[in-house]
Amino acid sequence: MKDTKFYTNKNWINKEYTIKEARADLEKYKNNLAIIDSMNREIEELEVKATSTTTTLSDMPKGNNIIQDRVAEYAAMISDIWTKRKEKMKELITINEDLVTDIEKLEDPYRSILYMKYISTMNLTEIAAKLNYQYKYTCKMHGQAIKKFKEIRINKICMTKEEKCDKEK
Prior knowledge:
Blueprint: H1 10-13, H2 19-59, H3 65-104, H4 110-119, H5 124-131, H6 135-160
C-alpha cells in the first residue's frame, strides 16, 4: 500500500474527517501548484548561483585558501537548499497525485465537478454552463461530490491502517 505520511490527518484515524477538511484537502491542490511553481523558480535561481559559484571557484588562483573555502561553503549551502526544495516539491507532487487519484475514483458527474472545480479551478457557474446543468443543481451535486470524496479518503485510511471500518454517514 502507498505510504500515506504526507497526506494523513490524525482525525481520519478517529473517523472525524469532516466535509470541511475534505474541501480543504481539495483546495490544497492549487495551493501546492503555486508553491511548486515558486520553488521551481527558486531552484532555477539556485542552479544559476551554484553554476556561477563553481565557475568562480575553478577560475580562482590556487593560493587563496580562505576565499576558496568560503566559495565552497557557499556552494554547499546552495546545494543543501536545492536538495531540500526538491524533496519538498516531491512531497507536494505526491499529495496532488493522491488527490487526483481519489477524484478519479468517483463516478461522473461527481468526478467531473470536483476535477473542474479543484484541478481546473473553475467556479460553479462555469461548471454548470460547461455541463449544461442549472446552477442550483451543480451546487447540490458539488456538495454530494464532496461527501463521496470524503468517504473515499476515509476508506483509504482505513485500508492503509488495515482496519475494518464502516463508511462514515
